[in-house]
Input
Amino acid sequence: MTITRKLAAAVAAAALVLAGCSSELPAEDPPAGGDTSAPDATQSEFFDQAEYERQLGFRDAQPLGPADKPWEQMIQPEMVDTTQYKKAGGNYHLCFSNAAVNNPWRQVGFTTMQEEVKLHPEITKFTVLDAEAKDDKQISDIQSLAGQNCDAIIISPNTTATLTPAVEAACEAGAPVIVFDRGVNTDCPVTFIHPIGGFAFGANGAEFLTEEVDAGGKILALRILPGVDVLEQRWAAANEIFSESDLDIVGVEFTDGDAAKTKSIVADYIQREGQIDGVWMDAGATAVAAVEAFQDNGVEVPAFVGEDQQDFLRMWVDEGLTAVAPTYPTYQWRTPVIAALKILNGEEVPSEWVLPQPVVTQSDVDQYVAEDMPPLHYAMCGCEDMPGYPEPWK
Amino acid sequence: MQEKPLPVRATPPEPRTRRFALTPTVIVYLALVVLLIVGSVLVGLRGGVLLDQAGLLNIFTRATALGLVAIGQTIVILTGSLDLSVAYLVGLTSLVAAETMAGQDGMIVPGVLLALAVAAVVGLVNGLVITVLKANAFIATLGVALILRGYLEHNYTGPAGDVPRTFQHLGYDRIGPIPVAALLMLAIAAACWWFLTRSRPGYHVYAVGGDIEVARLSGVRTRRTILTAHVLCSVAAGFAGIYLASRLGSGAPYVGTDAVFDLESIAAVVLGGTLLAGGRGGVVGTIGGVFILATLDTTFDALAVDPFFKDVVRGVVLITAVALYARRMVGRSP
Amino acid sequence: MRLRLAEGTAPVLVVLVALLVGLAIAGPAYDSVEGYLALLKRAAPLMILAIGQYFVIVSGGFDLSVGALVTAGVVIAARMIDGQESATAWVILLVLAFGLLVGLVNGLIATKLLVPSFIVTLGMLLVLDGAVFLWTGGAPRGALSEGFRQFGRGSVDVPVLGEVPYSVLILLVILVAAALFMRSGTGRALVATGDNDQAVSLSGGRVDRLRLLAFVLSGVLAAVAAILLGGFAGVSAQVGEGLEFRAITAVVLGGVLLGGGRGSVVAATAGALSLEALFTLLNLLGVAGALESAVQGVIIIAAVAYAALGPRTRFRTSRQPAPTQ
Output
């Protein structure tokens, strides 16, 4: 024990002594991650009134750009000049640090991104490092990409606060940095691409239930797991809306994204409450299992909030459910590639590229059902018109 | 470095082998060299360089956190025990360190010490459950892991705490291509090597793992040895948590479980030639195992291999290596 | 009969009865047969996994690959069936054969190459997790047929009891078969192998074959669990996540000694049902999900401590000849 204690002190001391040698630590000049991350990181309550209102505002705003290509649209953009990154002549080397491909959403998205790259002959090399959902590996990955002569670096961060320093380091390497999906606590990337956001997603579902379910109706909220910012925002918004409604939230449960556990939890609630009038979910991966729990218990399926996975959309149509599917569109995986090329062409891009976030409703669900696609394929992939479709997604 | 993988006391002397005996430790390092050569060739064929500055930096960085956890895991495995709670403990200690520091330079030392103290307490609990409650190490540490998980899930919803910039140098500084933290990890490995092969409690670790009854009869305080091993293992995991906190800039509850440190560290230890049943092996082999895993990772990244394929290779490598060691051991014993 | 029950079975049955009584008090659904049948249906896959894990543990090993095997089974079934009803029968056979094959490989590596089962099955876990998703490109493909799902989802009308889920019937058949098997000479030899393999070997038992058999049984039963879980909840990439640890926990909760040589299969199964009943009860009582795992941790430590410390006191009080086996 004394050895380890001494070593502990030595660790700190040695770090200070050796600090002079060389460091991957980004320079302090831009607002450092450590400083800005503090309020966000320690905040356990994920609700943010201003951001909530901003996102609800985005929902009603008219996006700019071609309506048939939502992945190129932008909502209320503030354009930035990118001439400093202009590099003529094509032969681009694009680099991508991916958080993971460990779930169907990311799988569909990554496939879409790879196909998007194929559309552009000027991209001659596309280097991808997969962090396998490990923050520490993604930090190394980004460092590694920063040293590989990339013409642009695309980053899909695994977590927000912890990857901020690595993204700052990548920015200092010189190539333009594009962040999408989850954000980071720094504005050094040229553009940050994301759909409207978790508050809007959560609100869409919750508003649907307040409209469809009578006052006093019993609502069961199913969440995947705590602590994931994107999912926490969805619940925070829904919770806000529910708390102002007359609905009775009988339970908020974590399912771990496990279909069997979801089914068991829903069955327990059906038995405990006698009747459930609406189900809100923060992600649709287990929506079908939840619907089946009602069917297997011989109870009518209540109003449901799902997502745009094919299995849920098919069930929705086949069973004539009353449902809504907010989406976190996978077509956003196309946008970073498009943005990278714009930047390398010296064209303006928005500093925050907010993509529209469609909602599948009773009236248009039919057009999103694709019988021949896998059950966990996401309808909102924006990939139907791509040359290779549908083979790579199958 | 040369290592005596055999206990000096309390086990029968090994029959003398020829001078260049292929002990598991030697095999590990031979395999590492072969892997580096094959990897360099394959990456070279694709027009890249594996062992340039960035490549070396990558390998060392990847080896650091896993190395720290695996060093500790080696000690408990040598006693015939095992620790499945390290993954959650790494997350917990990263949070303790980052939250104590709270962005202030003055709190670095208290943060580090508190994190190590928390780790030591968890190790003590592991050890007590095993020795006093007589629970099998697998279940005891799985139980403690579940309790830690409950604590983390109940109290945290994501990264928390704030590591001051000064301390982040620990995670980011390097000398040439070698990160300072990797050197510190190797220093800790060397300290453990010394402890295991040159100190009396270290001999006892091998004795207990070799045959606990024989050890007890020959006067070794087996209970104390197992307790010490578990405390040291947890402290090593604590170091990993502190290192990751400095690297991430904050504490993260799932940093250990995302990296699957529990199973990965056990894999690295047995890959390094330590017998899962205890009594044979050592830290030197473990470090070799860790570097094999890190090199595999880096090579696969350079070759743009599908991440799912990596798991397949890791599994096959693990089984093959241990099968190889088992064969040699059978071949050598009369 | 009394002796058999006495060997570690009584405590877990007491715990189980207590939990079931708790359920009856806490949940209105548990005042009828259907409520308990629903619980059994939910618990059936874990109970079947626990039976398989019991064979391996009692003979002195571990099987960490069952969770990955369950996922593999479901993903393979979905891709091979691809929604076609006509493919159901042969795909079910395929999944069972796959489980058998994985068990065989585990067993052969553990017995012939002398790799500790913990490592073999850990390696197998990695290989299966990687290979299955390498094959399907990261996410499950295809769909299960209604016929396939019947086993985990459907039920059959039984006189007196009413609608009994297929999975409960399958569980009962397997449990009875396992209990009979453990009474046979082979079953007893399996336990003896875990207790002292050299003694078994000296008295003419084929230790390697017995251990191999345990792994094969575990693999096949994991495939059965995959069929039931896929049927119960549909295609999912996470269906088997963590099941290996839960199955081991269940077996240990049933008083089976890790390292082998002691414990009964009925108790191991009861351990699995207790675990599932505990989760249900915690859920009914509204215990926060986060604390669930902490409660589980405390309970398994307590169970093992009891099992380890209990027998010594028993030994002292009753010095019957040949207290084990």
